[in-house]
Amino acid sequence: MVQSSSEEQLRIRKQFDSFCKTLLKNETIDYERARTNRLKHEVSFSELTQEELGCLNTMDEYIAESEVFRVLDYDIEVKDELIGEALKCLPEKKRNVILLSFFMDMTDTEIARHMNLVRSTIHHHRTSSLQALKKIMEEIRNGENN
Questions:
Q1: How far apart are CA 74 and CA 76, in angstroms?
Q2: What is the pLDDT of residue 18?
Q3: pLDDT digits (tens, 9 = 90+) for 24-74
Q4: Where are the beta strands (DSSP E) in 50-117?
Q5: Is pLDDT above 50 for 144?
Q6: Distance separating alpha carbons of residues 16 and 9, to the nearest angstrom
Q7: N- or C-end of the chain: fewer Cβ atoms within 10 A?
Q8: Could you give the maximum distance between any two Cα atoms of the chain, in Å?
Q9: Is this prediction's pTM over 0.85?
Q10: What whole-number percentage of the chain has pLDDT above 70?
Q11: 101, 133 Cβ separation under 8 angstroms
Q12: 3-class SS at 104?
């Protein structure tokens, strides 16, 4: 039994039609599966708590908003404006001791070695500088408030 060419074309069309319908059905199933999976993991912004929303933001930091001091080939950035202004008022040697001690976490011995000074001198510079910084920062605050 030999099929005519029109019957053969009709059979091929039906096979192609069946193939297309199966393909579309499977694509729909895949799409729905992916959508369901995505919905399990996605949350609307309106459903987030304030704490969760707070975790999503970021703050740009620019070097212009901070003071940069150069000490012993280190660039030390001071982000607090009040501390930066107060440090500018200190003599260079005392400022360097404070910056190396508190911003670079160096010990008095390490600072003394780098600055070619005695450790006790570094200790004296640090304690007197802290007292001076406190006084300067209070003066700056009071000057701004008046």
A1: 6
A2: 95
A3: 999 999 999 999 999 888 888 888 888 888 888 777 666 566 788 888 888
A4: 67-71, 74-78
A5: yes
A6: 10
A7: N
A8: 113
A9: no
A10: 92
A11: no
A12: coil
